[in-house]
Please model this.
Amino acid sequence: MEETQLDIHMHREHLAHRTGTGDRLTAGVSITIAVLAVATAIVGSVESMETAGAILESNKATLSQGRASDQWAYYQAKGIKKRLDEMTADAGGPRAAQAADKARQEGQEQKTITVEARAYERDRDQSRALAEFHEARHPVLTMAAALLQISIAISTIAIITRRVWPWMCAVSGGVVGAGLAASAFLPVSWIGGVIHRLIALH
Model:
């Protein structure tokens, strides 16, 4: 009877020890999944913002290009009028002086138009550069979000199998994913350039 009670007590201790270990593992993995889920949501939101930024800057570049083209067309029209007034002035006659004044005025207007056209072209170039900047971040953030999502999936394996190594793999994947996302905001993201070129090859 004493041996039976001793056996039962030993089994209870062993079961309590296993259950406690399992509970600690489940708790740890659950916290990891929650952290990874938050990180995935943040990276996904930033990825969407970068995509929107690239589209917005591309649209602004197109608009600035259109305005610059309009200004250069206006410049050419003024040039034609100026040339006609110069020809009228050179021909002499009662309207020669008036034509010469108009030619000088149109020449001044051409200078103003040139300044405005070049300003639009600078805006265009700046918007294009910003669009490329946002676009370069996008593939890096996409890969980072994918790694974080894969890490969440691997974490569930740890709960199902009650093993620690899938949890460690998930934590490692999460760290790599978070680091990859952070690298997108470095001054020079060489990783983004490499990923962008690989995507372009396909």
Summary: The two ends are 75 Å apart (CA to CA).
